[in-house]
Amino acid sequence: MLVNLITKSKMPIIVLETNIKSSLEICFDLARSIDLHKISTEKTNEEAIEGTTKGLINLNEFVTWQATHFGVKQKLTSKITEFDRPYHFRDEQTKGAFKSIVHDHYFKKTENYVVMKDIFDFQSPFGIFGRVFNKLILIRYLTNLLIDRNNIIKDFAESGKGELLLK
Q1: Which residues are registered as beta bridge partners of 79?
Q2: What average pLDDT does the structure give for the chain?
Q3: CA 3, CA 149: separation in Å to the nearest integer?
Q4: In 30, 72, 116, 141, which residue has its Cα 20 to 30 A from 42's Cα atom?
Q5: Which of 87, 114, 105, 115 has its CA nearest to residue 17?
Q6: Is 73 exposed, middle or buried (0-12, 13-18, 19+ CB in 10 A)?
Q7: 160 phi/psi in degrees, rounded to 5
Q8: Nearest-angstrom CA–CA distance, 118 and 89
Q9: How many Cβ atoms from other residues are within 10 Å of residue 14's Cβ?
């Protein structure tokens, strides 16, 4: 897995690339599966409580997640604002603790595998204090959440469990 961190105008961007031996369609659908998201975020007790709460999320649909991060129960609502199956979709925070989150998911077929690329662009609240928190804790924490999630997508796609989940 390739992990990069880009910083532009005080906003960190996490870029991950994961190679998966599966089809574009399976990888794309697993990445937008509410059910797989719940499985991949068991550590933070994420639950979909409003909007699309199971199955596959689509363009202009939203989901509100309730989770516990850093010992604090919080809610985050995101909406699918761009959608080009099976190559790209974008989810954007509409409500939540962050000042902003834009998460692009790209999928590209190569000869031997699918490259799943995440570009996670976020801005914390609280000005300079938020930027310090990003550097000390949050960037590593979010990167690890995304890596764990992508490893579960990879496992489900390559093992065939994903096809069963998507039925």
Answers
A1: 62, 92
A2: 93
A3: 14
A4: 116
A5: 115
A6: exposed
A7: 95, -10
A8: 10
A9: 21
The pLDDT confidence band at residue 133, using thresholds 50, 70 and 90, is confident
Burial class of residue 38 (count of CB atoms within 10 Å of its CB; 0-12, 13-18, 19+):
middle
Half-sphere exposure of 80 (CA within 13 A, CB side): 20
pLDDT tens-digit series, residues 64-79: 999 999 889 999 999 9
Identity of the residue numbered 25: E
pLDDT at residue 81, as a whole number:
98
Q: Which residue has the higher pLDDT, 27 or 5?
A: 27
Per cent of the chain over pLDDT 70 is: 95
pLDDT at residue 53 above 90?
A: yes
For residue 71, the SS3 value is coil
Distance of CA 26 to the CA centre of its chain: 16
Closest by alpha carbon to 4, among 147, 153, 151?
A: 147
CATH of domain 6-166: 3.30.530.20
Mean of pLDDT values over 91-114:
96
